Amino acid sequence: MIRWLIVVVLALLLMSGLTAWLRRFGFGRLPGDFEFRAFGREWQLPIGSTVALSTIAALVAKVL
């Protein structure tokens, strides 16, 4: 259980760090990606991009 928690936290950190770079390729603007402003901050929920990147990663892992 703790191993999965670590993987999820690392994936979220990686996704947040690469957000600007991935936006050049259209990730972060897919249907299902939500952006809203609350409490004076801009929040992002990249659900659609996460599904797309997970699918790509699974296909790469299956090929390798």
Automatic annotation (TrEMBL):
The chain crosses the membrane at residues 43-61. Keywords: Membrane, Transmembrane, Transmembrane helix. It comes from Variovorax guangxiensis. The keyword Membrane applies. This is DUF2905 domain-containing protein. InterPro entries: DUF2905. The keyword Transmembrane helix applies.
